[in-house]
Amino acid sequence: MRRVQTALALPGPTPDSRHDWQTIRTLLPYLWAWKGRVVFALSCLLLAKLTNVAVPLVFKDIIDTFTLPAADRMQQAALLVPLGLLAAYGALRFSTALFTELREIFFARVTQRAVRTITLQVFEHLHALSLRFHLDRQTGGLTRDIERGTRSIGSLISYTLYSILPTLVEITLVLGILAARYDRDFTLITVGTLIIYVAFTIVVTNWRTVLRREVNELDSAANVRAVDSLINFETVKYFNNERWEHDRYDEQMQKWEVAQIRSQISLSWLNLGQSLIIAAGVSLMMWRAAAGVAAGNMTVGDIVLVNAFLIQLYMPLNHLGVLYREIRQSLTDIERMFSLLNSNREIQDAPDARPLFAGGPDGNSGDPCEIEFERVSFAYEANRQILFDVDFKVAAGRTVAVVGHSGSGKSTLARLLFRFYDTTAGSVRINGSDLRALQQTSVRAAIGIVPQDTVLFNDTIFYNIQYGRPAAPREEVIAAAKAAHIHDFIERLPEGYQTRVGERGLKLSGGEKQRVAIARALLKNPPILIFDEATSALDSKTEKAIQAELDQAAVGRTTLIIAHRLSTVMNADEILVLDAGRIVERGSHRALLERDGLYSQMWALQQQEHLIEV
């Protein structure tokens, strides 16, 4: 596949300052990657317009032939001129369609490949952005922006190169013929009509663009509310808030309705103004042609020719107004998508970043790694610091657990290890190398995680487990499912491993989703494992069964366990107690109990809760 190097993903102007021509210039490299097809399509475009303009000229000669005096007409008939003209007329008509379709055929691949390439760049760029960006965005509005922007890119390319350029070529040819064959009044009237029409269209359409932008903003806002409500379908049902959601959505739709009506009314005024300008221009042209025929300066064929040119000009001119409006609307629609491409990557690889293992970004030495948090401080926001001077090391092949109350910063450690964020101070190291000096892909390839909140793809159970290592054979996927104690459950389902789990895995229970996540992490087979509340959604019996499997999975791997249930970390080589972002205690389970500190208090409280449950 041909690749086009562009600066789309680099920082650029904001949507408000982006000029339309800059947007078009951004698209040109994608088209020019197919130089041969572009040149051929443009040649077909020119030939199609030449044959189209030649049709009225031949038609004029046919009319003049049949309006000659009888004697002259007999002489012409003898020479078979009318027959030849009719044949030329038909050939030109067919040639216009032929060259137009050839242009469409050869340019179709250029357009679709450009749309595909840009869409993939947007998709890739969004995945490259930081977790902070995605947490601050709402999925409904983001997907609508991408959908509308992608569609508009195709429309922009199509309108510009299929319609605007052919129209300009045809207008130029017609004006040239009028100037060469007839009085300059015809050219002046045509040019004057064009100038007034284009100026009126631009002024009114620019005003309408503001209305269109408002419609898009309200449309995205309404879509955000709808998607957010549907994703949280169960919550809506729990609290019996269907009417509340209906009213919230309707409130947004009412605003959209008002803006859409204003936009439609402005469109009607634009259409009326354009029709008035065209009608005035046509009337002046026909009056001038009729006067020429009456004065004997023009033939009936001439007035037919002028009329045919007027029709040919009227249609593309009217279409030009529609196209200009559509192009402006398309440019407005893709502003948001370009703003996504212009979003800076908060976390980027350094120019000299190297892979964690010598085998490359996805390499894996098979040996456990050493993890070190060196005096790490971190804040999601300037006024909200989460970690304070956290300092610990997980030796290769060892297991360290981090416990603490909710909000103490435990899960933040996992996010920093994956390098979803960079530390505010201090450093995170793997095998002695600062994560900022390593390629992100190589770091993440070396880590497997069972997250606290397991989110699954709306696909089959098999797909969701195999996602841990997409190239893994079926036998290894099933083995991972057995290790996670979910194989028997899957086999009891009517469709087995081909059972679809629904949006975000909603068809599975919390425990079932977590076991799928465990199987996925085991299948990845990484040298580093992170269990972030890995058994929080499991019942006590299943937790004990899976805990043994997790302990077995941790053998030979460097493991970081983030847990609230202290019973799951008793066998860890070292336990860190995190409180308000600081490590307040560390040691083995027995040593921490003997210290009679915060860990001991948490243990006693959980034991009491367990006795109550029993």
Short description:
By secondary structure, the protein is an alpha/beta fold.
Q: How would you describe the overall organization of this protein?
A:
- The chain has 614 residues and is α/β, with parallel strands linked by helices.
- It folds into three domains: 20-341, ABC transporter type 1, transmembrane domain (ABC transporter transmembrane region fold, Up-down Bundle); 368-446 and 528-614, P-loop containing nucleotide triphosphate hydrolases (Rossmann fold), CATH 3.40.50.300; 453-525, P-loop containing nucleotide triphosphate hydrolases (Rossmann fold, 3-Layer(aba) Sandwich).
- It is 63% helix and 10% strand.
- A hairpin with a 2-residue loop joins strand 1 and strand 2.
- It is elongated and about 120 Å long.
CATH topology of the largest domain: ABC transporter transmembrane region fold
Compute the average pLDDT. Answer: 79
The helix content, as a percent range, equals: 55-70%
Strand order of the largest sheet: 6-7-8-3-9-10
Question: Which spans have pLDDT < 50 for at least 5 consecutive residues?
Answer: 1-18, 71-79
Radius of gyration: 35 Å
Number of contiguous helices: 19
Form type: elongated
Number of strands: 10
